[in-house]
Write a structure and sequence with these properties.
The chain is of the alpha/beta class. The chain folds into two domains: about 270 residues, Aldehyde Dehydrogenase, Chain A, domain 1 (3-Layer(aba) Sandwich); about 180 residues, 3-Layer(aba) Sandwich (Aldehyde Dehydrogenase, Chain A, domain 2). Helix content is about 35%, strand content about 25%. It has a seven-stranded mixed sheet, with helices on both faces. The longest helix has 19 residues. Bound molecules: nicotinamide-adenine-dinucleotide (NAD).
């Protein structure tokens, strides 16, 4: 064991006091490289107390002060891209270029937070009644918490805290215990940028830490990103405790390919979006719906491309796809593929039993491609979160849309076509929060919001963009009268105030 990943409380590293630790594994070697401290209720309380104390001054700080710190943080994040990407690859397993992409997309949200001054501009109506003005302002909530998944250990926290702290809140992050180091690095960079102690805190751990955040009376709001069952638990528990909640869940993202689509472009997109990051993306394409007669040709084009994907350690620049996060997850993914034929699927590529020479203990699985998948198959119904692509067939556009809309998930979806009318119709008819037209992974830019529908999001707010600012602030409307000294006093009037 080399080192221990500690909490970050009140502006400094805090050793775990609970005596409970979890292993952090390098997925490419299968070796436990580090242990991470798991927080007890008392340690979560210490982090929330530090955030509450810091809020007394941070909540009153000027926009100029907040944004100048965020600009410095942005520069530091930019300068440390490589180092953060290396931490991600070492604990998550994704290839270095993909890890760099994740940092770049997180940086977009810091860009947005640097311009929070524009987002927080209030509204003013003058002379709504005689000598009466009305202004609307938005104010921070106080201490807010973020709970994040393993698959984007830097980007998903960056979806949350830059906006939260730019709005004047203080933050407690509970990152995934599987790859906790990137979050600590972000905390160190924030501190270096001049963020006052206690404004950003990190507690590691499991359900004990999460559930304490959900019930803590001083936590005003909870942002969660993770799987659907846990998102539902977070939403139910935190709202029952009176908190504002946005809980983003899992997904099964469909790509509808119409007969007029450019099939080479569609196959490139399907392969990139299905197998990138070994399918461990909430916006991965996991189901292609081929409409009309294109199915056979499309499957063949996907197969040709998928077979060429180079699988290996994320540190090897020639690797295009790395291992899965844990052995247990790898084995679970394999069961879907092994059971597919019995459920009526045609197994075109079977990636189970795959290994990488010299790294036999890594959490490897190869590429799997399943064709003619019935909607009753578990491989279709469940979010597999691995490099398994299901192809389904539909006779018509309408049948394809009905199939997608019957899914309980509604995160992202895409249509591939050359027909603008069909694409427009799809945008309006499809039940998902993010739609791509000839774009397979339509993750919105930072100044638009990210979020799904149905079982992919619990709560009213999407994450970042205008929704982020709204989520992390509450509105206040001020009605002001400054009478002229020459005015005759209005006198007592018990009627309901009217504007005239
Ligand atoms: P997860 O739900 O297992 O864990 C997410 C977080 O919740 C972690 O911090 C974890 O420690 C905590 N947690 C786990 N079990 C808990 C419990 N019983 N009680 C309280 N807290 C608990 O998710 P994961 O495996 O880390 O991440 C993969 C999942 O996240 C996939 O389902 C993926 O689709 C989803 N995801 C969704 C989005 C999105 O934007 N919708 C983005 C990324 C990932």
């Amino acid at each position: 064991m080399t080192n221990i990943v500690n909490h970050w409380i009140g502006g400094k590293s805090a050793e775990g006091a609970s005596g409970t630790y979890g292993p952090v594994t390098n997925p490419a070697t299968g070796a436990v490289t580090t242990e991470v401290a798991f927080a007890s209720v008392d340690e979560v309380d210490a982090a929330v107390a530090a955030a509450k104390e810091a809020y007394l001054t941070w909540g009153q700080s000027s926009l100029a002060q907040r944004t100048s710190i965020l600009f410095r943080f942005r520069a530091l994040l930019d300068a440390h891209r490589d180092e953060i990407a290396e931490l991600i690859t070492a604990e998550h397993g994704k290839v270095h270029s993909d890890a760099l992409g994740e940092v770049a997309r997180g940086l977009e949200i810091v860009d947005l937070a640097c311009g929070i001054t524009v987002q927080l501009k209030g509204e003013l109506s003058t002379q709504v009644a005689s000598r009466v003005d009305v202004s609307s302002i938005r104010q921070p909530l106080g201490v807010v918490a973020g709970i994040t998944p393993f698959n984007f250990p830097a980007m998903v926290p960056l979806w949350m805290f830059p906006i939260a702290v730019a709005c004047g809140n203080t933050f407690v992050l509970k990152p995934s215990e599987k790859d906790p180091s990137a979050a600590v690095k972000l905390a160190e960079l924030l501190s270096e940028a001049g963020l006052p102690d206690g404004v950003f805190n990190v507690v590691h751990g499991d359900k004990v830490a999460v559930d304490r955040l959900l019930e803590h009376p001083d936590v005003q709001a909870v942002s969660f990103v993770g799987s659907t069952p846990i998102a539902r638990h977070i939403h139910t528990t935190a709202t029952a405790n009176g908190k504002r909640v946005q809980a983003l869940g899992g997904a099964k993202n469909h790509m509808l390919v119409l007969p007029d689509a450019d099939l080479d472009a569609a196959a490139d997109a399907a392969v990139s979006a299905a197998y990138g990051s070994a399918g461990e993306r909430c916006m991965a394409i996991s189901a292609v719906v081929a409409v009309g007669a294109v199915g056979d040709e499309l499957v063949e084009k996907i197969r040709e491309r998928a077979e060429k994907i180079k699988i290996g350690p994320g540190t090897d620049p020639s690797s295009e796809m790395g291992p899965l996060i844990t052995k247990a997850h790898r084995d679970k993914v394999a069961t879907y593929v092994r059971g597919a034929a019995a459920e009526g699927c045609e197994v075109v590529l079977d990636g189970t039993g795959y290994t990488v020479d010299g790294h036999e203990d890594g959490h490897w699985i190869g590429i799997s491609l399943l064709d003619r998948v019935p909607t009753t198959a578990k491989a279709y119904q469940d979010e597999i979160f691995g490099p398994v692509l299901c192809v389904l067939r539909a006779e018509t556009y309408e049948e394809g849309v009905a199939l997608i809309n019957a899914s309980p998930f509604g995160n992202g979806t895409a249509i591939f076509t050359r027909d603008g009318g069909a694409a427009r119709r799809f945008q309006l008819e499809i039940e998902a929060g993010m739609v791509g037209v000839n774009v397979p992974i339509p993750v919105p830019v930072g100044y638009h919001s990210f979020g799904g529908w149905k079982d992919s999001l619990f709560g009213d707010h999407h994450i970042y963009g205008n929704d982020g600012t709204h989520f992390y602030t509450r509105g206040k409307v001020v009605t002001t009268r400054w009478p002229d000294p020459a005015d005759t006093p209005a006198g007592v009037d018990l009627g309901f105030p009217r504007n005239h």
